[in-house]
Amino acid sequence: MKRLNRWREADINRKLLARVIVLSRAVAERLGRVPVFMEVCGTHTVAISRTGLRNLLSGHMELRSGPGCPVCVTDAGDIEQMIMLARVPEVTVTTFGDMMRVPGHAASLEEERARGAQVQVVYSPADAVELAEAQPDRQVVFLGVGFETTAPTVAVALSRAVEKKLPNFSIYSAHKIVPPVMRVLLQDPDLAVDGFILPGHVCAVTGRAPFDFIAGEFGLPAVITGFEPLDILSSVYRLLEQILSGEPLVTNGYTRVVRETGNREARAVMNRYFKPVDASWRGFGTVPGSGLQLRDRFRDYDAACRFHLPAPVYTVRAGCRCGDLLRGKITPRQCPLFAAACTPARPVGPCMVSSEGACAAYYQYERNNS
């Protein structure tokens, strides 16, 4: 705890902030504009808003949000199929709380529960396995939403269900892998970003190397970092240094958590039960090799197969610009619905629902900033 408190010491943060501002001026002079950095983690988005870093750095650089919120990037078609599952009479849908209020075409999971559907919030996929064991007369479906950080825990839960031979447990997998969508993002000729703040949680599993292509192929710097103000300021400082040096690298600034090779055990259990597949992302369409589907030998535990879900029919809600936000095209304030037609009480899109959504973070911490 003493070590963590050091990362929060005001004096250290103030001194580093001053150094960042000085360096950012030199970069702005070099570029002819302020630098633009993108964070690719919802926890970073919230931390930047909550601590006031975006406001403190305003005028010196721009910090934009990317596809770092797993609930936000879940495709509208997946949301519709999750709602279809909730409407099956013998099914109990289990999910993390963030998914409950994500608007579908005509309803949300929360609204389906109000109409009598069995939808239950759990805090771990293991809770869903326990529920299936306790209620053998119900089909329990866990909604798997998350990145490389979440998928291994779901795989462990599935291993328990397989070991117990539970015939009434299944998973709807909407898991995503981050590096492939980063590649698609970087291939966008309209992307105006000078560097990336990479997700510490994801990299704790993947390690650094899967992101090397950002510098190697696209010539942009990227820094893996943690979630304290000092972490984020340190990552920005490193990005600025790399721009001035003209030598872009992908570096690990979160060495107290992220190892060079990541977590082999987590990847092994994930790879045992899941295989990479093409997947649809909100705002991106189909991204090759960016999803995780249960391997064929575990097909019996795949909810989409077990319940023969049809292709969803839906339309994206008019005016919602979550997709543009996730691609770094706009900030929340540039969406005409933000803080007007779309609020946490009445969300139009998932970016206002999730605790890691950029719109929710801006609304809670920054909507009154000029």
Description:
The chain is 41% helix and 16% strand. The chain has 17 helices and eleven strands. It has a five-stranded parallel beta sheet. A four-stranded parallel beta sheet has the order 4-3-5-6, with helices on both faces. This is Hydrogenase formation protein HypD. InterPro entries: Hyd_form_HypD, HypD_1, HypD_2_sf.
CATH architectural grouping of the largest domain: 3-Layer(aba) Sandwich
Extended strand count: 11
Proportion of beta-strand residues: 15-25%
Low-confidence stretches: none
Helix content: 40-55%
CATH class of the largest domain: Alpha Beta
Number of spatially distinct domains? 2
Number of helices: 17
Query: Main sheet, how many strands, which sense, barrel?
Result: 5 strands, parallel
Approximate shape: globular
InterPro entries: Hyd_form_HypD (IPR002780), HypD_1 (IPR042243), HypD_2_sf (IPR042244)
Pfam families: HypD
Family: Belongs to the HypD family.
GO molecular function: 4 iron, 4 sulfur cluster binding; carbon monoxide binding; iron ion binding
List keywords for this structure.
370 residues; alpha/beta; Rossmann fold; 2 domains; 5-stranded parallel beta sheet; 4-stranded parallel beta sheet; 17 helices; 16% strand; globular
Task: Give the helices and strands, then pairings.
Blueprint: H1 2-6, H2 10-31, E1 36-39, H3 42-50, H4 53-57, E2 62-65, H5 70-73, H6 76-86, E3 91-95, H7 109-114, E4 118-121, H8 125-134, E5 139-144, H9 151-164, E6 169-173, H10 178-186, E7 195-199, H11 200-206, H12 213-216, E8 222-225, H13 229-245, E9 250-252, H14 264-273, E10 274-281, E11 285-294, H15 303-306, H16 322-326, H17 358-365
Parallel strand pairs: 1-2, 1-7, 3-4, 3-5, 5-6, 7-8, 8-9
Antiparallel strand pairs: 10-11
Helix pairs in contact: 2-13, 3-17, 8-9, 9-14
